[in-house]
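Quick one, T. Sequence first:
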Amino acid sequence: MKLKLILLLALVGLFSCGKDKDNGGSNNNPPSNLTVNAVVSTDNSGNVSFTATATNAVTYEYGFGNGVFQTVPSGTVTYKYPSSGTYTVTVVAKSAGGQSISKTISITVAVTLSLVWADEFDTPGAPDPSRWGYDLGAGGWGNNELQYYTNRLENAQVSTGTLKITLKAESFSGSNYTSARILSKNKFSFKYGKVEARAKLPAGGGTWPAIWMLGDNISTAGWPACGEIDIMEHVGNQLNKIYGTVHHPGHSGGNADGGTTIIADATTAFHRYGMEWTPTTIKFSVDDVVFYTFANNNTLPFNQNFFLIMNIAMGGNFGGAVDPAFSTGIMEVDYVRVYQ
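Structure tokens:
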């Protein structure tokens, strides 16, 4: 009987030791020997193929050096950088027990942007309906503006190779001014890239031309939660002062984030109004000279698809006092191009 009891205790001890060994085994072994390799595509696409390996690692967390992070269980991932630059990439390898080891590498990426959408305004008549729709009506549009937006040729027409959005002093459906507001909503939208529009702006006190964008989710999220990116705004009462602005929760309307620049001849010559947008920055420029850079991050609404808008407003909270002698003002647009 004693022999059986001794054997039983020995077996219990053996299994207990085995269980303790499992609990103190691979789950508690920290990762080691972390290596990270990067292969940068030679086609200037921005694609970089990463491979990370480590002993005892079960997952890898990548920080691509531009504010973008990704968890990759296999350690192998291809990431497409939206713009050229030198980036410090950090990889954290984690074990099943939560222990970690990290490694950083530096890579240099060259990105050549490709044209993905454009309107050159070469076909006479109404704006291309496959690219543009209209916002119609009056009521101030949230800014106490004075115009009535129409879809008439008198207010938006392509001729001699340019789009002409025309603001007119005329009585129309209860308003004293007419204009047009065209937009690519439900026809074209995009996430990240570069927009360039070559345009000549209207003159006159009260005029407020704009080339801008709104988030695709405006109908569900509302404004400013959807985000707004104003590529170019100009106010006739502040001649030649160009605004680049972003609106988002906590920073909208008069509290928006933005910058300005002064140019010599906004209403008499064409200029290239640009915006370059990545997960980490939104840069505003005139004739390729950047005048304001906004720091983007993944908590903001500027990481989704946006659509394009062009219009001229009259008066209101931003346009200000209207010149009583005003009769007609035109924003003439040579092209709008989007690159990615």
